[in-house]
Amino acid sequence: MSEQDFSRTLRLMVETDELRSTDLPAAAALLSRCHSGTAQWAGAESAVAHAQAAQQSIAASLPGALPVAARIQGELVGFLVAPMPVTPGARTANMALASHAAEPDVVREVYRALYMAVAGPLAQAGFLRHQVGVLVEPDSVVASWFQLGFGVDQIHGLQSLKTVTLSPNRVVETRRATADDLANLTDLAVESHQIPHPPAHVPFRTVPGPRHRPRARFVPGGSA
Predict the structure, then answer these.
(1) Which one of 3.40.50.1370, 3.40.630.30, 3.40.50.720, 3.40.190.10 gives the CATH number of domain 3-161+177-218?
(2) What number is the average pLDDT over the span 206-213?
(3) pLDDT, tens digit, for every residue of 36-50?
(4) DSSP string across 59-87
C-alpha cells in the first residue's frame, strides 16, 4: 500500500465527536506527552508537560468553546478545543497552544479531521480568521497545519542567558521621558513597526466572507 493510500485509509478511520468530560484524563495524557521534552530544545519546559496541569488547562478552556475529539475505533487519538468568543464584533478564533494535540503516528489525518469539524461552525458564527498555536517540533505537526492552508503569523522563542555577554561596566538607568527624547522615541517606534511580513510563498487559505487569513502561530515552549 502506498503512503497516499495509507493516509486515505486513516482519514476514513478517524471519526470526530464531542470531547466529553470522561475524555479529559486521556486528552491530558496525550497533551502532556506531546509537550514533554520541550526544555531540551526550547530552553524552558512547557506549562502542560505534566498531566495534571494539562488536564486543568483543558478543563478551563471548555466553557463556551467547541470541543472536538478525534477517535479511531473508539480510542481517543486527538482533540481540539476551538474558542467561541463572546465579544461583540469578534472575528478571530485563536486556538491556543494547549488546546489541541494529536497522536504522532496519525497527526496529519487527525488534525485534518479536527479542523474540518470546527472550521464550518466557526465561520458560520462569524469567526473568519483562525489562528492556532503550535510547537516548532515535531515537524509533522507544523507540516500538518501548512497542508491545511495555514501560514506563519508569529514565532516566539527563548534565548539562554548564557549566550548573552554583558559588560560589567555597563549600567542601565531609567528616567521619565521628556520632550528632548521625542526624536529618539519616534525613531524607536518606527523601527519597532518594521517587522517583516510572512514570506510571499507561505500558503494561506481564505475563509468564505471578508478577506481574513487563517494563520498558524508556531510558538516553542510558550502560549500563543
Answers:
(1) 3.40.630.30
(2) 37
(3) 876 555 556 678 888
(4) HHH-TTEEEEEEEETTEEEEEEEEE---S
